Amino acid sequence: MICPRCHNELRLADLSEVPVHECPQCHGVWFERGELEQTADRTEPNLAWMDFEMWKDQDLFNVSESVLLCPADGQGLAAIHYGETGVVVDHCVKCGGVWLDAGEFDNLIQALKEEVAAKPASSYVKTALHEATELISGDKGFASEWRDFATVLRLMEYRLLVENPRLNKLLVDFARLSPFK
Fold first, then answer.
1. Both 82 and 21 in a single domain?
2. Which of 12, 51, 126, 172 is most buried by its number of CB atoms within 10 A?
3. Whether the model pTM is above 0.90
4. Is residue 6 part of a domain?
5. Amino acid 2: pLDDT
6. Cα torsion at 145, 83, 106, 7 (round to 10°)?
7. What pLDDT does residue 127 have?
8. 67 and 154 fall within a common domain
9. β-pair partners for 31
10. 131: left (phi over 0), alpha (psi -120 to 50) or beta
11. Closest C-alpha to 102, from 41, 20, 33
12. Strands 98-100 and 87-91
């Protein structure tokens, strides 16, 4: 495969133990279908439950035609600009691959972390209910769906305590005074 940015031969590389294609010159990375999600899940397991919801919320991204061609099939890529994050994902509609320039993977992970930190507790309640249904009907397997559900519950707990400092103080005092230590 040829780099869509600088036209050098892409080499196999491991990114979070996922084999991907990387350009030795510009350090851009080509992810075949599903590899971006797999790499992100391994890089930041606390984000695995999000299932890259950025693709689902079309109001948050702007799609335009990219000047880059898909390294896998030569088709023109679509440039997806995600909100105010500065992240641009070059996506092949035909093969499902994704090209990220050097540093964009880290920017994407950071944008997802910021999205998680900004979610209100009420949003986590809705997400926890969704993840609970995924335990039964999800396609990732029970163990994976359970990890996602547990992560959302933990994040919901943190967010609830951040938004309600009096509740946090009450729980800390209760734990300190509890005879069941």
1. yes
2. 51
3. no
4. no
5. 96
6. 110
7. 86
8. no
9. 98
10. alpha
11. 20
12. antiparallel
Same domain, 153 and 112: no
pLDDT of residue 51: 59
Pairing of strands 29-31, 11-15: unpaired
CA distance 105 to 160: 29
Same domain, 107 and 147: no
The residues pairing with 78 across neighbouring beta strands, listed in sequence order, are 65, 91
Q: Is residue 2 part of a domain?
A: no
The verdict on residue 91 lying in a domain is yes
Q: What is the pLDDT along the chain (181 residues), one digit of tens a residue?
A: 999 999 999 999 999 999 999 999 999 999 999 899 889 888 988 787 775 555 556 666 778 899 999 999 999 999 988 777 777 889 999 999 999 999 999 988 888 888 888 888 888 888 889 889 988 887 888 888 898 888 889 888 888 888 888 988 888 888 888 777 6
- Of 92, 112, 113, 89, the C-alpha closest to 101 is 89
What is the total count of domains within the chain?
A: 2
Looking at the structure, tell me whether residues 60 and 146 fall in a common domain.
Answer: no
Residues 41, 31: contact at Cβ < 8 Å?
A: no
142 is a domain residue: yes
Give residue 56's pLDDT: 59
The one-letter amino acid code at 55 reads W
Q: Which of 51, 154, 57, 47 is nearest to 111 (CA)?
A: 47
In terms of residue numbers, what domain contains 35? 11-118
The 8-class DSSP code of residue 16 comes to T
